[in-house]
Amino acid sequence: VINCCRGIPPPEAIPSAALALHAAAALRDAPDLAFQYAPIGHYRGDDALRQQLALLHSADADRIFVGNGSLQVLDLVAGLLLQTPGTDVYVESPTYDRAVRIFARHGARVRGVPVERDGLNIDALDALVRERVPAFVYTIPDFQNPSGVTMSSAKRRALADLASTAGFVIVEDSPYRSLRYRGSTLPAIYQISEPSHIIAINSLAKVLSPGLRIGYAIATPDVVSGLAALAEDTYLSPPPFCQHVAARALTAGLVGENITRCIDIFRPRYEAAVEVVQRRLGDALFAIPEGGYFLAAYVAGHEAQVLNAARSVGVILTAGSAFFPAAQPNKAVFLRLPFQALEPSEFAEAIDRLAPIVQEPAAAIAGS
Ligand SMILES: Cc1ncc(COP(=O)(O)O)c(C=O)c1O
To answer: Which atom of ligand 1 lies closest to the CA of 215?
Structure first.
């Protein structure tokens, strides 16, 4: 059975041995810090860690809040921005399913804006914004989960401009940004936006360790204080030990080293995956990503039948409909195909098994 479901780093992409040494040093040098609460009073995260993250992002440390993984940070951001039930939030369609569930849990009215091969359809967003200005627009601009798409520079600028003229916040979630296998890095949206109109969320989960649960926001000092206050009321204290270990790892250059290692591991998997999906599934491939973990394909048929048929040939897929905030008007089945954890031969085997049971959809269905 080949599991094509989870977008998690494989063990070989986590520098566990080096992290264990940093963890041992952290326990030896600062056991009191490890086993106590973090300071009370709107704590924004370990100072050394925030300094290191500030260096990484060329931002001031007073613009950084560190929480327990980026998903929790997203929940806190939603808590801060969605204080009135029924507030509008616009998301990419498809998007990260857990984000939509978080926004809905905070009472938002979540509406989807189609993702094209170069990112969010800005004209469709503009039309929605003219109807109602949302509290925020949630985007994953780099190697999007689940479509693999990267937003073009022009669209990033258009989105930043629309946010400041219409008066909404952009929530930019970019955990895969450093994992680029081809092409050149585009400006992050937070680098080209008015600071009061952007909250950037990032994570060490895909570049160091998911288990340390280090996620962070880059925002105005006011938003950072708001997040810190909400965090304290939610979980009192993050685990200081995890933040201390992450600070040591960053200071020692382990994150930079590990990004290089991850790219070396993932690039051949990525190249082989693109090749086999293009060869076996043809036009079903939605877009050729330039990094990250995911390829996506649209195939014809009914989702349950496709998933069951795949299971019967030993391929486990995620139900792609979960990534759409509303039912899709067309009948195409969306397949998210994470390639990062499979050897090229395993991934090719999965696609070889899938090819006879899925049909390429008409271009109109697969298209943007
Ligand atoms: C787009 C996106 N945001 C957030 C997360 C959550 O990451 P973390 O482990 O930092 O909570 C993920 C995890 O896969 C993700 O794909």
So the answer is: 10
Q: Which residues contact 58 (CB under 8 A, 6 or more apart)?
A: none
Place of tokens 């995620």: 318
Check residue 229 and report its DSSP letter: H
Distance CA 36, CA 102 (A): 30
Under the banding of pLDDT at 50, 70 and 90, the label for residue 361 is: low
The H or E element containing residue 338 is strand 333-338
pLDDT of 328: 77
CB 338 within 8 Å of CB 294: yes
Atom nearest to 140 CA in ligand 1 = 1
Percentage of residues in the chain having pLDDT higher than 70:
97
In one letter, which amino acid is 287?
A
Instruction: Give CA angle at 116 (128, 318), nearest 5°.
Output: 105
C-alpha pair distances (Å), 3 with each of 191, 332, 351, 352: 37, 22, 12, 14
- Two structure tokens written together for 174: 């970019």
CB atoms < 10 A from the CB of 154, how many? 12
Question: What's this model's pTM, rounded to 2 decimal places?
Answer: 0.96
Q: Are 46 and 178 in contact (CB under 8 A)?
A: no
Residues within a 6 A CB radius of ligand 1: 7, 69-71, 96, 140, 145, 173, 175, 203, 205, 210, 215
CA distances from 22 to 97, 171, 240 (A): 34, 32, 14
Q: What is the pLDDT of residues 299-350, one digit of tens each?
A: 998 999 999 999 999 999 999 999 999 887 667 999 999 999 999 999 999 9
The chain-wide mean pLDDT, for the chain, equals 95
